[in-house]
Design goal:
Shape: rod-shaped
Strand order of the largest sheet: 1-2-5-4-3
Helix content: 55-70%
Distance between the termini: 32 Å
Largest sheet: 5 strands, antiparallel
Number of helices: 8
Radius of gyration: 46 Å
């Protein structure tokens, strides 16, 4: 989930809640202010009635006058002044309307009268709704402008961060490509870029030392391995070796062979990382795979492995040496990790190659499949670099590789752009 999306998920409910609460609060507050002002006008009208009665000795005419409805009723007890809102039916409009009423008693010549002063709230209600609607529209406009401003402003402010992330996605140790982390004008992002630049510098140093060590170790291994192999050949050519000695020599040969393959694999990885395979050629992949099938045909017959090859014309623009190594490793893995009487299926399309094979029925860990020295079984004779070499070649040549385990078969798929 992106930061903007998470921010909106948190802020939008809060903003909408504020909007609705402010709308309801505004309406109630405005209505309260108008009612208070309305009550003051009722008191003023009561004062006018008292003044008129004091001067003339009689009440003003009751009934509806100038939107005021005034009634006088004799009453035996004193009623404290109070306000009340109720609905009254208007026979002229044939509709009910809300009225605000003031009730109080007045002593005239020793007789108490209950005076009711009423006035319609119809205009007041319409005005309250109108003012509240204006306030809500204003608040809504402010919220929309704030959301849009935050969206574009935050996107602009976070642009250096995403720019740095995109640069880091393309960065690979040993690629010899500089990562252009520029000044952003924002202190936090400048601190982040400076820390990343230091990390990249240290990573490049460590990677260069590791690569140099790997390359030197691989070279240095070849000479003692050759000497050991020569001495073993001399011993084998001798006579009178016992069965136990022959088994020991065979075990020694296998260990030397594994050590030699390990050195060659490490040296190959180092060459790929040093970008020593630069020649690019347009290659007929269909013809190339057919030749590989012919080379391995005898081995497959010996293990009774059935091979199926379905293809269409396919060309790829890549280094021929790396392509040869890639096909050798893919087909060798499909053969060595197969079972007697198993199968290998090769599918070639215009921009895709898929190789699937039967095996021991256990999937390879997808998180570690292309990790160097990873072995599915701890005591395997494999050096654990075959798939790592495949991945390194694919990364170097721009080919995408993926692994699936379906229908009890291991499937490796390779795709490349047109």
């Amino acid at each position: 989930m992106k930061l903007f999306t998470r921010y909106n998920q948190i802020s939008l409910p809060i903003i909408l809640g504020i909007f609705f609460l402010s709308g309801i609060g505004s309406y109630l507050w405005i209505d309260h202010l108008f009612i208070s002002d309305f009550d003051e006008s009722l008191v003023e009208q009561a004062q006018k009635i008292a003044l008129y009665t004091h001067k003339t000795g009689s009440f003003p005419r009751s009934g509806l006058t100038d939107d005021w409805l005034i009634t006088y009723q004799p009453n035996n007890k004193v009623v404290s002044p109070h306000y009340q809102t109720n609905e009254r039916y208007d026979p002229d409009d044939k509709d009910s309307s809300k009225y605000r009423n003031l009730y109080y008693t007045y002593n005239k010549d020793g007789q108490y009268y209950l005076i009711t002063i009423s006035k319609s709230l119809e205009e007041l209600e319409g005005l309250s709704r109108y003012v509240a609607m204006i306030i809500m529209i204003t608040v809504l406009a402010v919220i929309i402008v704030t959301i849009l401003l935050n969206h574009f402003l935050l996107r602009k402010l976070w642009r250096p961060f995403y720019h740095t992330l995109n640069l880091l996605k393309e960065y690979k140790p040993g690629s010899r490509k500089t990562v252009p982390l520029s000044e952003t004008g924002i202190e936090e992002f400048n601190f982040m870029n400076a820390s990343i630049a230091d990390m990249i510098h240290n990573t490049e140093k460590e990677y260069a030392l590791l690569k140099e060590f790997t390359e030197n170790a691989s070279h240095e291994m070849q000479t003692p391995i050759s000497i050991i192999r020569t001495k073993l050949d001399m011993i084998v050519q001798g006579e009178n070796l016992s069965e136990l000695q022959s088994l020991a020599m065979e075990s020694a040969y296998q260990s030397v062979r594994r050590l030699s393959n390990l050195g060659q694999s490490l040296l190959l990885l180092s060459k790929i990382e040093n970008n020593q395979f630069t020649d690019i050629t347009l290659i007929d992949l269909e013809d190339k795979i057919k030749n590989k099938i012919i080379q391995l045909e005898e081995y497959w017959l010996e293990k009774q492995i059935t091979v199926s090859f379905k293809s269409e014309a396919s060309m790829i623009n890549t280094n021929p040496d790396l392509l040869d190594i890639l096909l050798n490793n893919v087909l060798s893995n499909a053969s060595r990790h197969n079972i007697n009487g198993g199968s290998i299926n090769i599918y070639l399309k215009q921009h895709e190659l898929a190789v699937s094979n039967t095996g021991n029925g256990e999937p390879i860990d997808p998180a570690r499949i292309f990790t160097r020295f990873y072995k599915q079984r701890k005591h395997s004779m494999d050096n654990g670099l075959g798939l790592a070499i495949i991945k390194q070649i694919c990364d170097h040549t721009g080919v995408k590789v993926s692994y699936q385990f379906t229908d009890q078969q291991h499937r490796f798929s390779f795709t490349w752009p047109a």
